[in-house]
Design goal:
Layout: E1 4-6, H1 17-23, E2 31-34, H2 35-43, E3 54-58, H3 62-68, E4 73-78, E5 81-84, E6 97-101, E7 110-118, E8 121-123, E9 131-133, H4 134-137, E10 138-140, E11 146-148, H5 150-157, H6 163-172, H7 178-191, H8 197-203
Parallel strand pairs: 3-7
Antiparallel strand pairs: 1-5, 2-3, 4-5, 4-6, 6-7, 7-8, 8-9, 10-11
Length: 204
């Protein structure tokens, strides 16, 4: 079946990480809360409202997740265009984000972020030389919900810093332990060698 593109974005439904944990509880592959919610889970409190919920998975595990979401409407998000991902089809290699809703005319509920990996190591898709063990990248909140390690989430946020990204960095960077600060500084120095956050990380 040919790809179905749409320019109708629609509304997002504010969703809590606990809800995602219920929907994804049957999965046998890794997944984790990403985005601003991941930083809140690390900090132990919610710092601001979140209008959407990002969930990370490994690209290689997309078939397993999509099979579990067979009744959902899933769209590839790329360059401002949403393209329906029909049953049995896999995301294109250049697509890193899938928008999901439970009904074709319902609100968007989850954005799935497709991450790269080699064996048991996570790879930064913008520079695969930047990597870390999956056991380091996936943390767990006190209630058991998995989330993306804060140093990795801040690396993603560093590419195009918005006001809320700067606020997230200012709040989270001082809470990173020495190993996380060292990793983020090294990764950022390689990916964004002139980034202003480097000075802060050196000083903390």
């Amino acid at each position: 079946m040919a790809a179905e593109a749409t320019s109708t974005v629609g509304a997002w439904q504010a969703t809590q990480p606990d809800a995602a944990a219920v929907w994804l509880s049957g999965l046998t592959v890794p997944w984790w809360i990403a985005g601003g919610w991941a930083l809140d889970l690390f900090a132990g409190s919610q710092c601001r409202p979140h209008q959407d919920l990002d969930v990370g998975i490994l690209r290689r595990d997309a078939p397993t997740l999509l099979a579990a979401f067979a009744s959902w409407a899933v769209f590839e998000a790329k360059d401002g265009t949403l393209t329906r991902l029909h049953a049995g089809r896999q995301p294109r290699a250049e697509v890193h984000s899938l928008w999901c809703r439970r009904a074709a005319d319902g609100p968007w509920i989850l954005e799935l972020m497709l991450d790269e990996a080699r064996r048991e190591r996570w790879l930064y898709r913008r520079d695969p030389a930047i990597q870390a063990p999956l056991t380091q990248v996936i943390r767990h909140a006190v209630n058991g919900v998995p989330y993306l390690a804060p140093e990795v989430q801040l690396l993603y946020k560093a590419r195009a810093v918005r006001a809320r990204d700067q606020a997230d960095f200012d709040r989270i960077a001082p809470r990173l332990d020495a190993a996380a600060r060292t990793w983020l500084h090294s990764a950022l120095a390689q990916a964004e060698p002139k980034h202003p956050w480097l000075t802060v990380l050196r000083a903390t």
